[in-house]
Structures are given as structure tokens and as C-alpha cells.
Amino acid sequence: MTDTVVAHTREELQPARSSLQGTVATVMTMGALHEGHAELIRTARESADHVVVTIFLNPLQFAAGEDLSRYPQTFDDDLRICEREGVSVVFAPSPDVVYPQGEPGVRVSAGKLGEVLEGASRPGHFDGVLTVVAKMLHLVRPDFAFYGQKDAQQLLLIRRMVQDLDFPVEVVAVPTVREHDDLALSSRNTYLSPADREVALSLSRALNAGAEQVDAGPAAVRRAARDVLVKEPLALVDYLVLVHPETLEQVPEWYRGPALLAVAAKVGTTRLIDNLPLEFGVGADA
Known about the structure:
Strand order of the largest sheet: 1-4-3-2-5-6
Helix content: 25-40%
Shape: globular
Number of domains: 2
Number of strands: 9
Distance between the termini: 50 Å
Structural class: alpha/beta
CATH superfamily of the largest domain: HUPs
Radius of gyration: 19 Å
């Protein structure tokens, strides 16, 4: 296994990328890597000859008042994880490298799908995400790009951008990685106090309670999940929805097919999201 090459500029990335023979996968991160990122890297390595990890805290996807300034930055630890997992290249540019003229005058628009759920709470967030993802895809030129299912709306929008704008890359989803207590892994979990963490567990409990009612239909799923959350007043729920995974529209009671049960809530000072993919009507005709 070769040593991990670290590139901080386009000029350093280009020869490092050109030296990679065979297929290349990328895992895009904002740093503060955890076991969820490690699982993305491991899954990527199973599909490609080389993995390029990008580490970039993207200012475009943080609105005023959000937690950009306190987002954990742990580059040395991040690099150790990349080396341990056999990453070929780490691309860790600064904002002036990614945006050499300051904030870009032209951005990728997420459209209507970027205005609901997370987009309604964080206007412009997904335009910032898609803009940086597009730039990284051009710079890294991967065959595959791996993203976590936990950020389901982001994953959907990246898939749509790749499809609609003809990016020559295959987007691959990786199931959410959870901690021992079922809390979805997130770099923001480090913000949680022990008491906050207990409150945060209500999100996964709500999703699991909803999933247990899938045979009873969408209304029962929504009701079971909501019943868990109303018992935890310290989880300030932004939304709890049961939607179609490609349109993000609420599914009706008669619906059969794939769906996404998703929740977002503020716990203490930390905003958390989680979701579970569900399937309605499986075995209904058996």
C-alpha cells in the first residue's frame, strides 16, 4: 500500500490524480472524520482501485448564524484515518483555493427540491453544497462518488445534479452508520452534552417506532414516530415527514412503494437530522 499523498492546491492535485491508474472513487467531507466516513472510504475501496478524499469546510453551505466558526477541525486525526483506510490522495484546499475570486458569481441551483425540508430551514444551503460538489467532481474526476444515506436530501440532489448536468460519475449511497446507542454518526455529535445525547436518542427511537408500523400504512407510521417525539419536549422538532425518496412529497395513506421517514430537531444548540428508508406494500399480495 502506497503512502497517502496530501494535496492542498490544484497544482498539487493534478499530478497526484494523474498518477492514479485504474478506477477512482471519491469521498467528500468537511473534515472531523468519524467511523461513518471510514465506512464510506472502505466501501469506496471495494469498488475502485483508488480513493481520493476531499477535506474542505465549505463556507457556501453555512448561513449567517450557523456553526461554521465552531465546526470541529481535526486535520491531523483526519489524515490518520485516511492513511489507515488506504486512501491514495487527500485533497485539502483552503477557501481561497476553491474560490480564488471570493464567493462565486455563478452557482449551481438546487431548484425546488432544495427549498423543502432542510432547504426550508437553511435557505441557500443546497446551492452551496451542489456548487462545491460540482467543483470537486471536476477537479478529482472520479468514476464513483460515495455519500451517506443520513444526508438523504443532499444525496438526492447530488444524484439529480449528476443526471441533469451529465457529470460522468456514478453516485453510490452508503447506509447510515450508527453509534452503539443507535445515534446516527455525525461530526456535530461532539457538540452534545451527556444530557443532550440522551435527548438526541429520541430521533432514532421515533424512526424505529415508525418503521415497526410499516405494515399498517403511512398514517400509522407517522403517528408512531410522532408519539415518541412528543414525549421528549427538549427535542425541538423542525420536521417529521414521510415522503417519496425522489420527489420529497408526502406519501398518501394508500401509497405502496419506497418512502423516507425523516426527522430534524434541535437538541441544545445542535441541529440533528436522521432518516430511515421504508418500503410499503412488500408482500401485500402474498
